[in-house]
Amino acid sequence: MLKKVIPHTLITDYDIHLIKSGKHYRLYEKLGSHPIQLEGEWGTLFAVWAPNAREVSVIGNFNFWDEQAHPLYLRPDGSGIWEGWIPGVGKGTLYKYSILAPDGRRLHKGDPYARFWEVPPNTASIVWDPYYEWKDDKWLEERKNKARTPQPYSVYEVHLGSWKKTGQGYKSLSYRELADELVNYVAKMGFTHVELLPVMEHPYFPSWGYQITGYFAPTSRFGHPEDFMYLVDSFHQAGIGVILDWVPSHFPYDAHGLADFDGTHLYDHADPRKGFHPDWKSAVFNHGRWEVKSFLISNALFWLDQYHIDGLRVDAVASMLYLDYSRKEGEWVPNQYGGKENIEAIEFLREFNSMVHNDFPDVITVAEESTAWPGVTSPVEQGGLGFDQKWMMGWMHDILKYFMYDPLFRKHHHHELTFSLVYAFSEKFMLPLSHDEVVHGKGPLIDRMPGNDELRFAGLRLLFGYMWTHPGSQLLFMGGEFGQTSEWNIERGLEWWLLDKAPHQGVQKWVADLNDLYTRQKALYEQQFEAEGFEWIEHADWQNSVLTFIRKGKAKKDMLVIAANFTPVVWENYAFGVPGPGQWKEILNSDSKAYGGQGHGNPKPIKAVKKEMHGRAYSISITLPPMAIVIFAPFSSQKGGSKSVAKRKKSTKKQSS
User: What CATH number is given to the structural domain containing 583?
Assistant: First the structure.
């Protein structure tokens, strides 16, 4: 028979001081369940914050879920923490906290700091002490050495549970299976990073992971915590960074989760005008409460510390910044100055970014922020929010709207194509074509393209070409890279069978070659967030729907000239100014037959002639293919052109479709 709870703690007086002041950023080392040895005997130490509870006990499969068997002790220091050590309870034990609320209700709650949970729809936490021997020392050292220096970010956004299905198309791959298939595929495609939709434990699979109950545990649907560590390690050993979606804005009302945790609004606001989110029907974190702030920042640092994560993309930042976000008049409460800015959330975001960059200066943070809030990527010490990059939502909306126009009428909407360059350097932008653009009836990206199949695939290649050569980094959701033809559905895997067809193979090869060019050419990434890295040649040729521009690295030799034709007409002898004399070599052309195009182009180097155009002393005349983008480099500094996918690192395994 198990012994009763023994008073014991990992928490010091200094810990309590930090917790009460909202400055404890390693709470996962103190709260939760921790298997430890005490006087020669193994057991588990439990600690949970429930300041308004009348009683707290640990229930589980070790005591037949008896609410009276193992009560915890309330610390006498006013911290609201209940704790105790239970002998004989070890790794793999199922448990919850039984909490007697102030109003007499008995609540059964999962552990907010649990490292592992049962596979949903089961809801118990699991005592776990992950052990994994990392093999990514080389990656972490290189990450440290390259920190805060210009580098490419080409991000492949992935929902792990629906990237590929097995078992007649209904079973998701495990973390270990993904470590083989997904890692090899991303390496073959040349992406520098993956961004994973939330991997934290969540009860409802169709929420895509955005309704989290287990903030400190990777979902058990695909394996154990060590298996997820293995997946991250595998990405690193393949030279690929891992960014996680992180959701500090809201949480669901599931009975075993954070809501009503001790019978009160512990993690959220009691006033529904502040504590209920109308869009997601979920609870809004109380970012002004010190213990909640410590919980969230500890969680962010946890993934960077324990799982070697390389970046956090913060979801729904706009909903945090504005008190009236998605709310009608009378449904929100102004701040103390009468404004709509959420001062507490703003300070939380600044402190989050400050702590991440202080403790992990080689990690990046990315904001999904859809408004014109100033200084999202400006340093905190200069009054900004402190993010490293921000999703360029305006570009995404404008470009997708533009591509839906019939090419015959695009000349009347030319400004929608170029407007993003008016503000492109006001923030450090990442251009997203994310999961949000291929769900809820929007259809796949290729459905935005008008015309027959030939024009649709040409349009998709042109879209990606303009995206990769536009200032900023880029993110593409899975399936887009080969022209998925159905809307994303998490119950099905991607349509890998499409790669039996040449047009889809062409799009896939085009994206891989864009990634190859982007990572080799400093002109595309060295000044991707700076105005000095971009220069228009001609942006006003609206009658032909043509753009010509220059991308530049810091060295004069690192320069590319780009011409994009947004109509299905071949423009022969299309002339435009270039930066100087010499020869210009076409190094990438989306109309190449290798990508499924018609094959129009410029196979030989083109010599610039001394003929003034567009305010430049020299110009060239090219064949500008239909519905295509062509990229030129100075012939003398050309670095080998576009390598085919087949010539990539021999160590990369071939991805089976």
Answer: 2.60.40.1180
Please state, in angstroms and rounded to a whole number, the distance separating the CA atoms of residues 392 and 376.
11
- The residues that are catalytic are 315, 368
Both tokens assigned to 435: 């999961």
Q: CA separation (Å) from 583 to 201, 325, 338, 540?
A: 56, 53, 62, 25
The CA distance from 432 to 475, in Å, is: 5
DSSP H helices, 322-392, are 343-359
Residue by residue, what is the 3-state secondary structure of 501-549? CHHHHHHHHHHHHHHHHHHHCHHHHCCCCCHHHEEEEEEEECCCCEEEE
Q: How far apart are the C-alpha atoms of 155 and 611, rounded to whole Å?
A: 41
The answer as to whether 34 is a domain residue is yes
Of 94, 110, 126, the domain-final residue: 126
Label residue 1 by pLDDT band (50, 70, 90). low
Please, which residues bridge with residue 152 across strands?
A: none
pLDDT value of residue 87:
95
Q: Directed axis angle between helix 290-306 and helix 13-20, to 10°?
A: 110
Rounded to the nearest 10°, the torsion over CA 512, 517, 519, 522 is: -170
Nearest alpha carbon to residue 91 among 115, 119, 109, 64? 115
Is the pLDDT at 265 greater than 70? The verdict is: yes
How do residues 525-558 score in pLDDT, each as one tens digit? 999 999 999 999 999 999 999 999 999 999 999 9
Looking at the structure of the chain, the number of domains it has is 2
Q: Which of 537, 637, 648, 525 is nearest to 239 (CA)?
A: 648
Q: Residue 163 has which token pair?
A: 């990237």
For 60, the token pair is 């589980």
- Tell me whether residue 518 is in a domain: no
Give residue 8's pLDDT.
Answer: 87
The Cα 385–Cα 494 span in angstroms is: 36
As a whole number, the mean pLDDT across the chain is 94
pLDDT for 614? 95
| 526, 543 Cβ separation under 8 angstroms | no
Distant-in-sequence, close-in-space partners of 231: CB < 8 Å, separation ≥ 6: 175, 176, 178, 179, 182, 183
Would you say residue 71 lies in a domain?
Answer: yes
Give the 3-state secondary structure of residue 565: strand
Of 126, 152, 170, which closes a domain?
Answer: 126
pLDDT of 170: 84
Instruction: Confirm whether 474 is domain-assigned.
Output: no
Parallel, antiparallel or unpaired: strands 534-541 and 276-277: unpaired
* Count of Cβ atoms closer than 10 Å to residue 18 Cβ: 18
Q: Is the pLDDT of residue 294 over 90?
A: yes
Q: Which domain holds residue 540?
A: 531-639
Q: Give me the CATH number covering residue 42.
A: 2.60.40.10
462-500 pLDDT, tens digit each: 999 999 999 999 999 999 999 999 999 999 999 999 999
Which residues touch 212 (CB under 8 Å, ≥6 apart)?
198, 200, 201, 202, 247, 251, 252
